[in-house]
Amino acid sequence: MLLSVLLIALDQTILAPALPVIASKFSALDNIAWIASAYFLTQSAVMLLYGQALTVFDRKWSYITAIALFEIGSLLCAVAPSVDVLILGRAVAGCGAGGIFVAVLSIIAEIAPIERRPALMGSFGGVFGLSSVIGPLLGGAFTDHVSWRWCFYINLVSTPTCF
Question: What pLDDT, on a 0 to 100 scale, did the predictor assign at position 64?
Answer without folding.
Answer: 92
